[in-house]
Every structure is written in structure tokens, then in C-alpha cells.
């Protein structure tokens, strides 16, 4: 799981920068065009059959990274290899063919479904786009087949998205992603818009479908409990960069980066209720319009020193497959202990 043994997806030095346009008003007032580095020089791989969990706060670039991997957002630099093919170099036609094998489940099941289309048309669209059904009746049969896999049925074919609950709408979104028999799915916060009781059902469904259909997931979430439950490996993202990555059992049990440690401190300890100490980060995530120099986490890091303000740390391997980017890595410090000392505990 930790070594690059059988990668389906390899992401190499991927960056995504959004450049603002210089409007006439900006030119007249001398305002410079802005540039947002949403994803910065990110590298990782996802093995076949694996779930790589991608965790971080809202606005850290997780969703942009997921979409850049699929080329739904065009990467600015770097490349993505899917089953050995450089996706970033494909022509529009070749990319369309490749999309059959790489799909996405979106966060908001309502916004991602066309409100004027029936379930039959929404779920059948990939079959039409990729020419995967010879006739309308064959398309309907395939749509019914995938609806049954996700817990819906033929009675839902001619209904519209507004006639379903949030959980059912997400099942429709999953059916649409799976009907072309892809191998790789980017699950972009697929349960965060749902009630907690429904979240568990959708997570269980995704796990069952993964086994049944031989899928590989890049699973994006801001909820570390969800990531810990289903991931084989975990990548922790902060302001467009991966700061820690490794086997889930290692990263979550022994987080080495101060940011991961603070995320883990937010998870309640069921074995010691009432004795749980939480590290609350001060300040908001800095704007990617004006990221801090040096280590991007230094403005909120309880362990930051002057050196952290000037030089960006280089990721180091601390155990097989477990990499961390922090200048103070070898001091074996913990933000929990530092916070305790600061409070005089
Ligand atoms: Fe904190 Fe410095 Fe490590 Fe960044 S490099 S995480 S600021 S201790």
C-alpha cells in the first residue's frame, strides 16, 4: 500500500494557477491582475483498488486538485498519468474517450443534476456521449441496472431530481458516474451536504460498489473521521500543498505535521470522554491570493520559528511511504504538548 507497486494514477508536480483578467476599469485605476495558486507542485499516486483520502479545510485546494487530475480544470503545470497515459497531453477527442474511465461524484447532488432532465436522461447521458448503448431500450436497461446497484429502481426512471431526497439524489449522481464502468472515481466531498444518518449509508454504498466494480477512489473530504474510516492512505493538504501523506493507520495514529496534529485533536476520544484536549488554530486559512512566504502554515502554527517564515520545508520520508514537510520534524514536537505548556497545564 505504501510503495508505488501498481499505480493507476500518478500525479507529478501538478499546479493550477487561476489568472485574473485585466479589465478596462483595472487598467484605468492601475489595479494589477490577480493570480491564485490554488494547487502548487503536488505529487502523489493512487494504486489500483486503493482509496486515497485527501483531507484539508475548505478553500485549501482539494476540489481544484481533484478536478485538475481529471482535467475538468486544465492544469497549469505538471502531468497526470492514468494507466501509463499522460492525460495532460491528450487531445480533446482522446480526453473524451479517457473520461469514460475517470469519473467524478460531486458534493452537491442537487446542483450537479439538471433539474429539467429525468433520471433516465441524467444517468444515461454518459452512455450517449461515449456511444455505449446501441438503442434507446438498451440504454434504459443499462440505466435500470445501475440504478438497482445504487439502491434505486425502474420506478424512478421518469422522475425529476426535485422529487428525490438528498440521499437519493446523491445515489443518482453515483449512478451517473458509474454507468460507463470507470476504473477511477474522484469523490469530491460526496457526503458533506447530507444528513449524518444518510452520510453513513452513502459511504457504505461507495465501499460496496468499490469492491463489486473494482474501483479506485480519490476521496476528498474536510471530515477527518470519514477519511480515517475508509482510506488506505491519507494526504493532508494545506493552502494548495500536501504537507503530510502516508498510510492512514500511520498518519492518523501518529501525525507528524503540526497541521495534521491539530486536525486530529478535533476528533473526540471515545475512550477518554471529558479528557480530550483540542488545539484550536488561530486565524483563518490565509488567502491563496497572497500566501505567506516560507512554510505556508507558519501564520497559524504553534511551533513556528523565524526560520519557518523564510524557507519552505521539503517533504521527508519518516517511515515507509509516510512523508512530512516540516522544518521541526526531527525535534518530535507535538502541538498538543506545546499548547498544554503555553496554558500552564
Ligand atoms: Fe510549523 Fe515551521 Fe513546521 Fe511549518 S515548518 S509546520 S511553521 S514548525
Question: What does this protein look like?
Answer:
Helix 4 (119-129) crosses helix 5 (136-149) and helix 4 packs parallel to helix 6 (166-178). The two termini are 40 Å apart. Strand 11 and strand 12 (322-324) form a beta hairpin. The protein has a domain at 50-75 and 90-101 and 182-344: P-loop containing nucleotide triphosphate hydrolases (Rossmann fold, 3-Layer(aba) Sandwich), CATH 3.40.50. Strands 6-7-8-3-9-10-12-11 form an eight-stranded mixed beta sheet, sandwiched between helices. Strands 2-1-4-5 form a four-stranded antiparallel beta sheet, with helices on one face. It is built from twelve helices and twelve strands. It has helices at 24-29, 62-69, 92-99, 119-129, 136-149, 166-178, 196-213, 224-230, 248-253, 258-265, 306-310, 335-343, and strands at 7-19, 35-47, 51-55, 77-82, 85-86, 102-105, 184-188, 216-221, 233-238, 241-247, 316-319, 322-324. With 345 residues, the protein is α/β, with parallel strands linked by helices. Bound molecules: iron/sulfur cluster. Iron/sulfur cluster is lined by residues 258, 295, 297-298, 301, 303-304, 308, 313, 326-328.
The residue ranges in which pLDDT falls below 50 over 5 or more consecutive positions are none
CATH topology of the domain at 50-75 and 90-101 and 182-344: Rossmann fold
What best-fitting shape do the alpha-carbon axes yield?
globular
Bound small molecules, deduplicated = iron/sulfur cluster
Radius of gyration: 22 Å
How does the major sheet shape up? 8 strands, mixed
Strand order of the largest sheet: 6-7-8-3-9-10-12-11
Distance linking N and C termini: 40 Å
Count of strand segments: 12
CATH architecture assignment of the domain at 50-75 and 90-101 and 182-344: 3-Layer(aba) Sandwich
Structural class: alpha/beta
Number of helices in the DSSP assignment: 12
How large is the share of residues in beta strands?
15-25%
Helices and strands, in order, run as: EHEEHEEHEHHHEHEHEEHHHEEH
Mean pLDDT over all positions: 90
What's the name of the CATH homologous superfamily of the domain at 50-75 and 90-101 and 182-344? P-loop containing nucleotide triphosphate hydrolases
CATH class of the domain at 50-75 and 90-101 and 182-344: Alpha Beta
Helical percentage: 25-40%
Amino acid at each position: 500500500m505504501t510503495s508505488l507497486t501498481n499505480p493507476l494514477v500518478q500525479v507529478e508536480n501538478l499546479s493550477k494557477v487561476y489568472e485574473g483578467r485585466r479589465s478596462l476599469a483595472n487598467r484605468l485605476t492601475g489595479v494589477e491582475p490577480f493570480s491564485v495558486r490554488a494547487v502548487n507542485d503536488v505529487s502523489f499516486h493512487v494504486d489500483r483498488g486503493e482509496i486515497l483520502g485527501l483531507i484539508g479545510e475548505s478553500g485549501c485546494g482539494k476540489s481544484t486538485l481533484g478536478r485538475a487530475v481529471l482535467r475538468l480544470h486544465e492544469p497549469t503545470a505538471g502531468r497526470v498519468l492514468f494507466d501509463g497515459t499522460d492525460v495532460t497531453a491528450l487531445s480533446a477527442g482522446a480526453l473524451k474517450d479517457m473520461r469514460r474511465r475517470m469519473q467524478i461524484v460531486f458534493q452537491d447532488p442537487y446542483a450537479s443534476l439538471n433539474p429539467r432532465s429525468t433520471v433516465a436522461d441524467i444517468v444515461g447521458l454518459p452512455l450517449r456521449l461515449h456511444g455505449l448503448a446501441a438503442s434507446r431500450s438498451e440504454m434504459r436497461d443499462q440505466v435500470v441496472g445501475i440504478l438497482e446497484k445504487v439502491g434505486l429502481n425502474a420506478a424512478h426512471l421518469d422522475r425529476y431530481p426535485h422529487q428525490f431526497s438528498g440521499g437519493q439524489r446523491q445515489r443518482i449522481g453515483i449512478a451517473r458516474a458509474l454507468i460507463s464502468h470507470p476504473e477511477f472515481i474522484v469523490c469530491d466531498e460526496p457526503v458533506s451536504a447530507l444528513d449524518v444518518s444518510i452520510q453513513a449509508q452513502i459511504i457504505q454504498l461507495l465501499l460496496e460498489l468499490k469492491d463489486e466494480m473494482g474501483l479506485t477512489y480519490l476521496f476528498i473530504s474536510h471530515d477527518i473521521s470519514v477519511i480515517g474510516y475508509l482510506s488506505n492512505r491519507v494526504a493532508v493538504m494545506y493552502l494548495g500543498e500536501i504537507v503530510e501523506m502516508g498510510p492512514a493507520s500511520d498518519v492518523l495514529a501518529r501525525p507528524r505535521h503540526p497541521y495534521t496534529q491539530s486536525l486530529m485533536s478535533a476528533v473526540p476520544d471515545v475512550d477518554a470522554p471529558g479528557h480530550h484536549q483540542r488545539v484550536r488554530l488561530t486565524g483563518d486559512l490565509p488567502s491563496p491570493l497572497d500566501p505567506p512566504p516560507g512554510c505556508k502554515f507558519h501564520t497559524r502554527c504553534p511551533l513556528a520559528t523565524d526560520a519557518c517564515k523564510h524557507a519552505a520545508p521539503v517533504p521527508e520520508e519518516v517511515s515507509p511511504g509516510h512523508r512530512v514537510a516540516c522544518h521541526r520534524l526531527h525535534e518530535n514536537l507535538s502541538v498538543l504538548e506545546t499548547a498544554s505548556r503555553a496554558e500552564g497545564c
